Amino acid sequence: MPANEPLYVDGEAELDEVVAESDVVLTDFYADWCGPCQMLEPVVENLAADTDAAVAKVDVDANQQLATAYGVRGVPTLVLFAGGEQVEEIVGLQSEDELRSLIESYTG
């Protein structure tokens, strides 16, 4: 059952666990100093609240190895997992509608 709010993930094992437990996971790789990341914050909160996807947030400064493992070079980067596999990677600020459509293409 996905949580109704973003899950702050610390480390690869924790992310693997979220991905294993949820059909669809939107992972937000962010940094506190990143302006576009702050603009994306209410969007990912809304998506966590009203979609069937789990939303994970990864602070790239605290989890540099994890960010590197997923090829994250800039923030925000959103990685979408479906059925335990990485299916999408979106770099940069996206609208809520675009992200909702993307999630629904995997959950619906």
TrEMBL record:
Listed Gene3D superfamilies: Glutaredoxin
According to the record, the segments passing through the membrane are none
Q: Which domain of life is it from?
A: Archaea
Domain Thioredoxin, first and last residues per copy: 1-108
Instruction: Give yes or no: UniProt keyword Electron transport.
Output: yes
Against InterPro entries, the record matches this protein to: Thioredoxin, Thioredoxin-like_sf, Thioredoxin_CS, Thioredoxin_domain
Where does the record place the site Deprotonates C-terminal active site Cys?
28
Annotated active site residues, numbered on this chain, are: 34, 37
Q: What is this protein called?
A: Thioredoxin
Q: Which residues are tagged with the site Contributes to redox potential value?
A: 35-36
One Pfam family cited in the UniProt record for this chain: Thioredoxin
Recorded hits in SUPFAM superfamilies, A to Z, give:
Thioredoxin-like
A GO MF annotation of the entry reads: protein-disulfide reductase activity
The record's GO CC annotations read: cytoplasm
Q: Which cysteines are joined by disulfide bonds?
A: 34-37
Q: Which UniProt keywords are present, listed alphabetically?
A: Disulfide bond, Electron transport, Redox-active center, Transport
Q: Record keywords: Flavoprotein included?
A: no
